[in-house]
């Protein structure tokens, strides 16, 4: 017996566990003393770490253990803690569960309690409430009911992490207000209000003169409040959208055993005590202890930093080793499953011991929660915003200096008193600061966030779940898509429609192009017999061999989906299982497997393209069942079943003639778009057999004896093409996006399907190649080949990654689809990785940027459309805002300098309203235009394309010129043109200029709905409700300002003629935009100096012009922008290195 006295202090749990109980647990197994290090660790095996004492206390605990004690198993891995808790049997009893049947679906509250002593005493098998085995058809795929597992959730909680604390409205308001310019304006407003109050109540007024000097200060404050309020609500809505998206991104289905039946539940509903399945590619969501399985190896690099794959040892074997004092390989005794790690090989089950915040991954996630980085588009915009900030700041400084000099020059001989002089100086200061407000586009860095938030929400409705924000915008510029075949281009609804068993028996379903609907197909054999007649001719022994080869050598299982019993797992395996059940009379899969004495499982691997299971037969022999790619398995076979109708499993040698016949069968199946799978077996005298490598790695051991197999048969599986795939491939081609099929299938199958869906086009010299041939190409040959490569068959994940890397070297923006664990490197390497939401492994999903919720290729096309819509939305907003920026700054500068009173025609409050229009309203209106089909009728932008194109500059400068000409003519010549003489009419003229300026912006929004030279600016307008609503708000706001703004906005009411002048002049921007669009882009390019064109618009350089190479470097960060603005700009994480040099921001 292990006899260890414990001296360390221990915090009592809800069961009032004492040192005595703990010692009893450690003494519960027989054997002599283990090593001193193990003894030393046992002393503190279950002691709480500082700060975690609360996890060891649990009120009304009906279980033997607390979350703190279970946490000691993993943090770090602790064999002493595992031993102290009584091993798997102790955990099983203490958590009131069962390793075979899992939790009961009927569990609500628990009666009685299990003490620590009861759970850890001896090796008594678990005793608990009997579990009722329920009919699988009654189980529903649904979240666990809130009334279920009440006591279990009370102590251990579920598998949900607390929601990330979002900023409150007040916090967001403070961030928005914490803008240096707004604070500066606030100071100016306070001073203005103070002086205004003094002038209103402390200075004499002429009879009838309104005492309203205080109004301007109040108006500036109100304008600041509105700007902060709108910005706050905008940010709040954005945060809510991303919280919703993150919830969706984190949710997934996992496989557990409850009441003895395997079923799928939400990962959030996994509980301590659940028994979970392990399969290759699974991302383990909780901590646990390995129960049993075959060759399970985990990649824990992301969880522990361990780079090697770690083989998991069944918990009972580990406990027996500790009991028997076998400490020679203590470091290799690893029954621990850590959340966040990935299953690389093998299958099995494990017992969940920690969920949510108590799991290793949960603790790490909680500690690392932080803001996401800026996307590439945000980075480019941030650099541009910094340039504009510098120009706007310089303009404001020059304006202040000029006006201040004029002010000083006019002081001599002035009859103004001190307060009036102070008020005049303050007007200059406020005007200069307001120019900065208008010129510096604070809303610009956030405009892309709004567009992305809107697009990602809408993309989710189109079955694109965006996990990495930058992928949304990058997808718009994708130039090539490397797509899987199965489940993406095809439906992944597989059915066995053809088979050749042995040398003689075969059948073939006449399958329509659309699928395998039994009502419209006629199964026949080569001899004209029906499928049923052909299969019934097989002997009972051959049927039994087929059933075993299919059911035992499979990882799929019977479960429940959407309330009905079905097979869950690989679609190829489920098709074979359905064939075995429906055609061969196989019993329940669990029964077939229970009747087999499985000794070893070699999991499927995409590089080997087969899986194997070794079972011990009643006669003492060991039989290996193998299934996989037909060409590969045929090479490993030396014999084939001679007569499938015979009761003896006699075989005959495979000669060249038979191999040719079987190869032709494979070719025939493949050319008819069937996936071919071979089944083989071999009997061994012992396992491991004589002549094996003796390698401790069971896979290598099997590979060394995988030869001289007997071929059972070859099956053909039909997977119909998805509806709409041909159209989606055509859309990609029209959009300038090349589609390539990358598959592990036979080259003939891949070629036939690629040609069927329009990917393979022999008339365009498209190339079809196999993976082994592709990887042997030299670097130069590969670069030449990939440009015309359309189908890569029999490819490995390494081939896919090599293809992606080569395409990226050639300057392509590459999107890749993948569903397997081994696809993760290619998904990570690609610019945009698409994983499959239905068939994809969790590792693939984590490596991807976007999850296709319906596994459908057509959803990728929708992703391209939304990606382009995001880029277009930001460019539309940018085009609109820069027009307002240029016009407002120049107009303010000219009119203020020319004025005798140093006053701009647009006051500070009026400019704040314009700023609100262009910073927030325009962002909402222009960032929410949904994409239309025409967006696919243009080529993608290159990676180095400038943010502001030549065509955009043509519209920006053209509209700015028009707006400046109109407003300056009205300001300086309006009195003469309109015959205004009286002071009242002069006030009306100023209001007329302001009103006209705003109406030009309102109409210019419509111009900016298009970035190309097409003239239909109203296309799909009715589909953008946001745009219509925002325009109604802007028009309504302007009307209110003119009618009731009065002194606050320095406006006076206008009559009907003046309103008509304002609206007509504003509307003239529409025909003016038509004129601008009719000007050829190359004419506009000729105006720009060559050096500027070379840097910013290389596409505008004609072949006749001499090309010179030049480089530029962009600013490291938005230091100037941060210096003069702050606020929301500081709340964005920015890494903007080198973007100006990569094609420029202009």
From TrEMBL:
Locations listed in the record: Membrane; Vacuole membrane
Region Disordered, annotated ranges: 1-36
Cited Pfam families: Cation_ATPase, Cation_ATPase_C, Cation_ATPase_N, E1-E2_ATPase, Hydrolase_3
Location of the Cation-transporting P-type ATPase C-terminal domain: 904-1078
Keyword Iron applies: no
Predominant localisation class: membrane
Designated name of the protein: Calcium-transporting ATPase
Species name: Lojkania enalia
